[in-house]
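Worked example 3 (structure in, sequence out).
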């Protein structure tokens, strides 16, 4: 190899390849060349950020064009990185082209410039196959087409790639515009094996694009060539810096992943895809941004339970005991779960059903999921869907994005370690929707369809995973807000609110022991009486569930904990504390609620209805008043259109049946109200929106009571829709309404005849306290609800029995 001395120009963060053109500004070029005509000089990249070390290999360049530049600041520094303010302000723009690569033998500082003794280096082989040349050309074209650059630059680069005949220049030209690190480019410059270097350039061109859409055949050939070369390189150490040849930890990781992949029982197509990703990892250096992304992906794939399942418990009796121990009541739910377990034991390949528990807050929907998992002997995972607005949360992020990760279901399976856990989708009715991030509810359709979820494909995974063995449970407060296609995929089971008796039993069995333990005291020193618990239930809470009840019990326990702590500090004995009604009022204060229904119904024109809400049943008082006027009608209480129409229907029926009462002594006529009377109908709790037709008979009864002056019985609640002909039509949510009335001490319930079949769903300990009156006509309602039945004689009735 020939040796020579040339001026050396150090540069940072840039590698110049032979055959490529470079534009450089040099200050005082005559001093740089020691007064001689400058035709060639060496370019040597800095190795470190501090610019104190050079690489051992650089590029000899020849000057093509020189143009003086007046009054430019100097762009070069001396070897010791000190300012060169003494240089001339006359600079020169140099256009040069890379000629040869050289090895730096020695370097010295002469004046303010660097001179080096160099040795020209050539490739060890100069011939490669035509196929490899064509692959290099294709990979370069593919990179240019996928990269974001100006159209003029793209055309120029594509033309050069197509026209360049010399394989060495072609490879270096493509390498010059690849978006790879300076050390990776320097490794290409220092690689003197033409075939190996060409394969590296192809690999870089494929790996630095966002998505590898190029021919799979080229990728396979490159991987094969690199694997063959790696064996030769490791044996003789000729070439350095080849992607994938970092050794050490990377090699150990790839070996471990390969071993895990070989043992995974996953579909053949999926294994082939993952194997391809592993092969790609072998061709990458650890500094490549894609290296860590693929590594994380492979770790995730190998951590999934492709063939790991937990053994189901098929002991139905034991499952029943487990459910009874964890939850009081909920008999319908428990019955359905036992049925599921029985069928599961008989039919081993049964696909997972999707159960949706819907009901008011605090009735045990979420905790029921954990109990089901324990009864079945499966792992349990809860996914909170409330407020989720990004589809990627469900289906994962594509791996083209920085920080991408799999969706919640792949994460759940990875956490559980089995492919058949119980996954609870909590608050599925509160999934949001975003115009930009997509519709998560629609993304759930594939997951919750037993006919499709055996091939669920997460965007991050890119390979299908079988979810058909998973038992999916969902919870919601309102089934109406769940999109119809999603609701159709689930079996809906309604959980109603608890009765006073159920709340008492739950408090005694679960809430009191829990709160006593959580507040650091012992069960031996505190005892809640049934009367005190009932007082808390009736006078401090009005809810379908038991959350507020638990908070109040916790407040009492904390109050006792203060006394207990003081006794321990003083060394005195602490006697057992009996929680009575007086203690409850002392700690919780004045009761929040009181049963004033009897007082409020003590005047005519007030009736008690039953209402359904997403948070359980409740009573609804309808108040009316009248005054002399022009027949105006006012309706207040934030009502919906349906309820307003019920008011108009009730008035029309009363006008037709009670003409003597409806028509006062006035010449004014009204199209809405009653002649000569201004009527005001109010529904208290005006801040709460109200709608629905089931208050029809309550409104009618209140108006008849107002016009006749006859009071409505205070122990009677009613629900039912009224038609224009006086028929009482069926309603929904009877169980919740009855439980709400029972909590308020109502003794008699008037309901439509066609809802008689729903009474069987009401617990026996509630039914024994109530009298149910089933009616078909509004006249029957009035006969049962009004204290004085003589008003019925003033009706122009169609029913001769009345």
């Amino acid at each position: 190899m020939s040796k020579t001395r040339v001026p050396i120009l150090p540069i940072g963060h840039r590698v110049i390849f032979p055959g490529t053109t470079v534009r450089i500004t040099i200050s005082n070029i005559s001093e740089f060349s020691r007064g001689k005509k400058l035709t060639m000089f060496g370019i040597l990249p800095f190795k470190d950020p501090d610019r104190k070390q050079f690489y051992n290999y650089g590029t000899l360049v020849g000057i093509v064009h020189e143009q003086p530049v007046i009054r430019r600041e100097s762009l070069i520094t001396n070897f010791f990185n000190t300012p060169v303010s003494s240089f001339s302000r006359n600079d020169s723009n140099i256009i040069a082209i890379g000629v040869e690569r050289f090895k730096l033998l020695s370097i010295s500082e002469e004046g303010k410039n660097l001179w080096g003794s160099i040795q020209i280096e050539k490739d060890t082989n100069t011939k490669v196959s035509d196929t490899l040349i064509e692959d290099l050309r294709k990979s370069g074209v593919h990179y240019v087409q996928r990269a974001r650059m100006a159209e003029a630059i793209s055309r120029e680069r594509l033309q050069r790639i197509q026209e360049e005949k010399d394989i060495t220049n072609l490879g270096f030209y493509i390498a010059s515009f690849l978006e790879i690190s300076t050390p990776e480019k320097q490794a290409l410059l220092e690689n003197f094996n033409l075939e190996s270097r060409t394969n590296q350039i192809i690999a870089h061109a494929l790996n630095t694009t966002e998505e590898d859409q190029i021919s799979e055949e080229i990728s396979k050939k490159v991987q094969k060539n690199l694997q063959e070369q790696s064996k030769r390189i490791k044996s003789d150490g000729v070439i350095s810096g080849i992607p994938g040849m970092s050794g050490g930890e990377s090699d150990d990781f790839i070996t471990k992943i390969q071993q895990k992949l070989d043992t995974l029982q996953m579909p053949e197509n999926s294994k082939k895809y993952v194997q391809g990703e592993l092969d790609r990892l072998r061709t990458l250096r650890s500094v490549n941004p894609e290296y860590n992304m693929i590594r994380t992906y492979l770790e995730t794939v190998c951590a999934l339970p492709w063939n790991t399942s937990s053994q189901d418990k098929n002991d139905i009796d034991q499952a029943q005991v487990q459910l009874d121990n964890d939850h009081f009541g909920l008999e319908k739910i428990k019955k359905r779960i036992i049925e599921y377990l029985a069928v599961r034991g008989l039919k081993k390949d049964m696909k997972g059903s999707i159960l949706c528990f819907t009901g008011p807050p605090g009735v045990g929907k979420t905790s029921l999921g954990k109990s089901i998992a324990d009864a079945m002997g499966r792992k349990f995972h809860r996914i909170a869907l409330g407020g989720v607005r990004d589809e990627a949360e469900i289906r994962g992020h594509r791996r083209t994005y920085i920080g991408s990760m799999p969706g919640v279901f792949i994460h759940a399976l990875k956490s559980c370690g089995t492919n058949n856990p119980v996954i609870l989708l909590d608050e599925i009715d509160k999934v949001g929707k975003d115009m930009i991030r997509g519709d998560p509810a629609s993304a759930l359709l594939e997951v919750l369809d037993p006919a499709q979820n055996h091939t669920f494909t997460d965007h991050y995974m890119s390979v299908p995973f079988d979810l058909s063995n998973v038992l999916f449970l969902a919870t919601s407060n309102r089934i109406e807000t769940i999109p119809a296609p999603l609701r159709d995929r689930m079996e809906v089971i309604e959980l109603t609110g608890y009765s006073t008796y159920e709340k008492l039993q739950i408090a005694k069995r679960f809430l009191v022991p829990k709160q006593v333990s959580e507040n650091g005291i012992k069960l031996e020193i505190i005892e809640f009486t049934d009367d005190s618990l009932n007082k808390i239930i009736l006078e401090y809470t009005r809810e379908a569930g038991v959350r507020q009840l638990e908070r109040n019990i916790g407040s009492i326990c904390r109050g006792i904990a203060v006394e207990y702590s003081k006794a321990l500090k003083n060394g005195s004995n602490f006697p057992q504390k009996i929680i009575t009604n007086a203690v409850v009022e002392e700690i919780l204060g004045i009761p929040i609620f009181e049963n004033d229904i009897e007082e409020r119904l003590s005047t005519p024109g007030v009736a008690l209805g039953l209402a359904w809400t997403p948070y359980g049943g409740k009573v609804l008082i309808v108040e009316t008043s009248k005054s002399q006027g022009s027949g105006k009608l006012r309706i207040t209480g934030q009502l919906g259109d349906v309820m307003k129409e019920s008011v108009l229907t009730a008035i029309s029926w009363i006008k037709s049946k009670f003409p003597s009462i409806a028509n006062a002594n006035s010449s004014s006529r009204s199209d809405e109200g009653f002649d000569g009377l201004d009527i005001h109908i109010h529904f208290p709790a005006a801040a709460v929106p109200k709608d629905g037709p089931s208050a029809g008979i309550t409104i009618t009864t209140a108006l008849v009571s107002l016009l006749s002056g006859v009071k409505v019985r205070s122990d009677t609640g009613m629900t039912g829709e009224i038609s224009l002909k006086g028929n009482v039509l069926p309603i929904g949510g009877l169980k919740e309404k009855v439980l709400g009335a029972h909590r308020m001490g109502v003794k008699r319930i008037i309901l439509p005849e066609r809802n008689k079949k729903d009474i069987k769903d009401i617990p026996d300990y509630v039914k024994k306290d109530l009298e149910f009156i089933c009616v078909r006509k509004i006249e029957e309602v009035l006969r049962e609800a009004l204290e004085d039945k003589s008003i019925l004689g003033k009706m122009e009735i169609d029913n001769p029995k009345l």
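Notes: The chain has a mean pLDDT of 81. The longest strand covers residues 91-110.
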